Amino acid sequence: MSTTTAAVPTVKLFIDGKPVESTSSEWREVINPATQEVLARVPFATAAEVDRAVASAKAAFKTWKKTPIGTRARIFLKYQQLIRENMKELAAILTAEQGKTLPDAEGDVFRGLEVVEHAAGIGNLQLGELANNVASGVDTFTLLQPLGVCAGITPFNFPAMIPLWMFPMAIATGNTFVLKPSEQDPMVTMRLVELAHEAGIPPGVLNVVHGGPDVVNAICDHPDIKAVSFVGSTRVGTHVYNRASQAGKRVQCMMGAKNHAIVLPDANKEQSLNAIAGAAFGAAGQRCMALSVVILVGEANDWLPELVEKAKTLKVSGGSEPGTDVGPLVSCAALDRVSGLIERGIQEGASLALDGRNPQIAGYAKGNFVAPTIFAGVTAQMTIYREEIFGPVLCVMHAKTMDEAIEIINANPNGNGTALFTRSGAAARHFKEEIDVGQVGINVPIPVPVPMFSFTGSRGSKLGDLGPYGKQVVQFYTQTKTVTERWFDENEVGGAVNTTIHLK
């Protein structure tokens, strides 16, 4: 933590439609993980600044909730255009502060852009229901009304996509929003917020505060915040869910994972190994949907040497370098943690089939790099299996049958994503029926659904019933109000008092 004034830019808060210089005495440096260059300083907002952001959102809600749905939709049509026009700039900012490769950074932005496009269709998504003449002259219908001020807490690994999972759908459904991006890489998020206001989002509808645990707790506790969306670690997500729920808020938390793939011997070897290597080591393994465990079934166990050779071909370097496949980890602390877990795996008896520690990267001597690393002979009792490593480390297990592999996966407490590689339709059907994981891929290693559907992680990977984006998030950000109404004909003669419970 830095408390000194440095000759680098300061990241601003965003309150009531404009950037605001924080008065905080607590600041953190935003550091390029490939070079250790200090890019900016980010403030940990004061309690008064959080209150000011929420007050701005509360005031704006009074008019925003009455804004015609078509007007809201047109703002997001404009917003998606601005994101497309500024894609290269957004990706460059993201790569500098987070480390992922430029193509992957563009993918990060693009997957968020898809949700913005979805938000532009809010007119079809926020429809209620009507039942005509449910009793004599009586109609019943529902309204999907916004909740009020909502808040989002986002992680470092997708600083464009995950904020775009949150505030566009919340705002499109008529709410106002307070966003707390990761303090490790907030700069691309702030640029996206600037573009959102350029697209026409009114002052106060979208506000940003930065900070650590104190700001998170303030969001959980604030009486004027009605709903909280969170993506991040299981430890923090559980805290957010419990604290915000106890404060009477609606909460959704997408948390940690340990995603498995099963490889059957009948799978297409080349395609399967390419997919596994990309899903395990892309983004340096810093994805909540990264493929961190592969279970080779039967004769597929013989493919391990070829998987190792695939991993060796991946280029490790700075994210802005052409042809880079694996960039740095986000911080020195992350590097220390991943390196420590690799050492723990060796100590606990796993076989290090490929050691990616301490790679020598030309021009990036100070970078937080770990090259692709593969452990074989991993068991469910090992720390490298039980913990989410969040680095380019793949655990390889072996099973005699697919059912044995399914048992391994279902015994794991997490349920974010899983995949099966096979040519057999019968095997795929059996897998889909028996696996207890919320998002399933068949020959697809990272089965994150497109925004017409919802992100449906399950079990230990999720708290709350409704996922981000898609149809589910419209329910999350709206309150269903049911109206039952009867209109009498002006010439109708009134009858007797009716004391029965039903209408005729």
TrEMBL record:
Gene3D superfamilies given in the database record: Aldehyde Dehydrogenase, Chain A, domain 1, Aldehyde Dehydrogenase, Chain A, domain 2
Swiss-Prot/TrEMBL GO biological process terms: L-valine catabolic process; thymine catabolic process
Source organism (scientific name): Pseudomonas knackmussii (strain DSM 6978 / CCUG 54928 / LMG 23759 / B13)
Record NCBIfam families: MMSDH
EC number: 1.2.1.27
Alphabetical keyword list: NAD, Oxidoreductase
Protein name listed in UniProt: methylmalonate-semialdehyde dehydrogenase (CoA acylating)
GO MF entries: methylmalonate-semialdehyde dehydrogenase (acylating, NAD) activity
